[in-house]
Design goal:
Number of helices: 9
Number of strands: 4
Function: Major role in the synthesis of nucleoside triphosphates other than ATP.
Bound molecules: uridine-5'-diphosphate
Mean pLDDT: 93
Largest sheet: 4 strands, antiparallel
Shape: globular
Helix content: 40-55%
Cofactor: Mg(2+)
Low-confidence stretches: none
Radius of gyration: 16 Å
Order of helices and strands: HEHHEHHEHHEHH
Keywords: ATP-binding, Cell cycle, Cell projection, Cytoplasm, Kinase, Magnesium, Metal-binding, Nucleotide metabolism, Nucleotide-binding, Nucleus, Transferase
Subcellular location: Cell projection, Lamellipodium; Cell projection, Ruffle; Cytoplasm; Mitochondrion intermembrane space
GO cellular component, one term: ruffle
Oligomer: single chain
Distance between the termini: 14 Å
Strand content: 5-15%
């Protein structure tokens, strides 16, 4: 009998990914979601919303003293955002790699920011930067009933060793 959770204790790790207003305006939602799907991660929450200033100030509370903070809040509230929760082994770290450097000018080609953006103030996507940060952000953006438990039929292929 193989113990799946012993082999992959963090298989249920979760991260929050948000497609920012520029990504939505530029019709990049499908292409960005596709990258997470094809990597093998599981989508467990998804919604589109116009973000309130209250939510944004909580989300970016650590940046409130930065000079770019007011323009960041303007940008993030300039239009709807698509926010998602993705689940899988080391999904936080892997998503940060997939999203690329905060400043798109330094982001590698092949990353979301490296392929779709060139300026730090319009960098298309957000990804949680640690498992603790992800937990905090998921609780902030989603109610627990909005996160779905479901079995991916290919889970034994994408998540287990042979
Ligand atoms: N940001 C900005 N100017 C900067 C640095 C950051 O406008 O000089 C914005 C940018 O949208 C970035 C967000 O603030 O994604 C949050 O910054 P953080 O350092 O947390 O980077 P991230 O975790 O998003 O890569």
């Amino acid at each position: 009998h193989r113990n799946k959770s012993a082999a992959f204790p963090d298989e249920r790790e979760r991260t929050l990914i948000a497609i920012k207003p520029d990504g939505v305006q530029r019709r990049l939602v499908g292409q960005i979601m596709q990258r997470f799907e094809q990597r093998g991660f599981k989508l467990v929450g998804l919604k589109m919303l116009q973000v309130s200033e209250d939510l944004l100030s909580q989300h970016y509370c650590e940046l409130r003293t930065k000079p770019f903070y007011p323009s960041l809040l303007d940008y993030m509230s300039s239009g709807p955002v698509v926010v998602m929760v993705w689940e899988g082994h080391k999904v936080v770290q892997t998503s940060r790699t997939m999203v690329g450097h905060t400043n798109p000018a330094e982001a590698q080609a092949g990353t979301v920011r490296g392929d779709f953006s060139f300026h730090v103030s319009r960098n298309v996507v957000h990804a949680s930067d640690s498992p603790e940060g992800a937990q905090r952000e998921i609780q902030l953006w989603f109610q627990s009933k909005e996160l779905l438990k479901w079995e991916c039929c290919d889970q034994t292929i994408t998540c287990e060793d042979a």
